Structure formats: structure tokens, C-alpha cells
Amino acid sequence: MNVFDRFRLDAKRLFITGGSRGLGREMALALAEAGADVVMAGREAASLKRTADEIRARGRQCWTIEADIGVPEDCARACAAALALGPIDILVNNVGGRRVNVPIAEETLETWRTHLDLNLTSTFVCTKAIGGAMLARGKGGRVINVASISGLIANRGIGGRHYEAAKAAVLHFTRATAADWAPHGITANAILPGVFMTAPNERWAREQPEMMAKLKDQIPMGEFGKPEDLGPLAVYLASDAARYMTGAALVIDGGTLLW
After folding, report:
1. Which SS3 state, helix, strand or coil, does residue 139 take?
2. Which of 45, 75, 158, 194 is the most buried (most CB within 10 A)?
3. Of 60, 16, 53, which Cα lies nearest the Cα of 36?
């Protein structure tokens, strides 16, 4: 087998949350280019359609599920709908975000719980449902959780610490899942992005340019990540090339954590 063949995902099916925009879109497109068919869930019908059309233009099948993955009941419904389409081989738990800049002393319990559901509970619900079906099927699988370098550090000058807390938990949940499911041929790995210029971060840049300038100064490579930088890493983790990697936390941050 040619080494590049080990990165192919032909006859595989992906389920990705938040797959129509930003980092999720780039991962969905990359996995489709590697041969995977795609089921993606998101809140906005228009963006789901746009990305689905891009995937189909690459010769792959694509199904969309309109759902708010940050609401556990809706997340469970989306998983059930995905499984009704057929077996899932690759799960990418991508959905998440900080969304609000609020100090700890001012954050309400409702806001805390809402964002833990978005960033952490969704990962559990999808892993239980989609990963559980992989387990029952007995043919292995791949679980890829998008955490963040914020799960390892506290970001300077920004509130909303639910994000750091949730992403740290996602990282350790990934490790625990990897340990439990390794004997069954299911790998679980985490991607830890630094600052990527997705739509939310473009908004932060407009609203708080000084904060974003400081963040950029902390990056040894001197620039923010581009969403398309994440696609090749997701392909690797989803493929046979990563057969022997599980429980890993792969940082992709332009060197931010080096200083």
C-alpha cells in the first residue's frame, strides 16, 4: 500500500457538529476530499446548504441536520437522525465557543450551564450516541474532539472562563474515552487549536482590537491560524495513518504555548 493510500477515507462516513462554518467547514471539506461522505449538524439552514453543496461538488454524498447541538435534547435528536442514515465511522465533535466576555464574579449560573452544554455536554452526548454505535457495531472507529489551547492555559484579558473549564474537561474526557475504547479499535484524540480567524474571532477583532493585537504578539509565528490549516490534521486523525494514535492532544497554535 502506498503511504498516501493510508490517508484515504473512501467508503467512510463522517458525522460532524458545527460542520457548516469555520473550522468545522474546513474539516468537513478536507475529509470529503479524502473520500468520506458527510453528515453534518448545525443551526443555520443556509450555511448547511452552502457547505453541503461544496461537499457534493467534490463527488461525495452529504446530508444535513438542522439542530442546536448546545441543547442536549436537540443534540441527541441530531445523533439519532444521523444514525438513521446508516453507520458512522468518524465522529468530529467540533461545535463550541466562548461567545461572551464576562468576569467570573459576574457570570450567571444560567450562562455557565449554557456554555458547558455547548462545549462539553455536546461532546459527551455525541460520543455516547455515535461512538456507542461504533462500539456496538464492532468495526472500530474514530472520535476527534476539538478542544483548545484554552484547556491548558487561562487566556489573558478575556472573561468567560466557562470556556477554559469546558475545554480542559473535553481534553480529559478524550483521554478517558481513549482508554476505555482502545481495546475495541476506536481511537479518540483531541485537537487543540490556538487562535484561528473564524467568524467569532473576526468579531472579537472588530470589537476588541487591542486584545487581539496582544494575542497575536504572543504567537511565535506572528500570525493567527487559518481555518484551512486544520483540515489536514483532521484527515490524519480520521485515517488509517493514525491507527496507533489514541488519547493524544495535538496542539496547532503557531507556537503560542512555547512562550
Report:
1. coil
2. 75
3. 60
CB-CB contact of 14 with 36 (8 Å)? yes
For the residues 216-244, what does the mean pLDDT come to? 95
Pairwise CA distance, residues 143 & 177, whole Å: 9
Name every residue whose Cβ is closer than 8 Å to that of residue 226 and which is 6 or more positions away in sequence. Answer: 196, 197
**Element housing 65 (H / E):** strand 62-66
Q: Domains in the chain, please, with CATH?
A: 3-253 (3.40.50.720)
- Segment 109-146, tens digit of pLDDT: 999 999 999 999 999 999 999 999 999 999 999 999 99
Phi/psi of residue 41, nearest 5 degrees = -115, 140
Q: Which residues contact 25 (CB under 8 A, 6 or more apart)?
A: 19, 51, 227
All three cell numbers of 241, joined, read 495513518
* Contact yes or no for 27/16 (Cβ under 8 A): yes
Catalytic residues: 163
Residue type, 255: G
Dist. CA 54–CA 49, nearest whole Å: 9
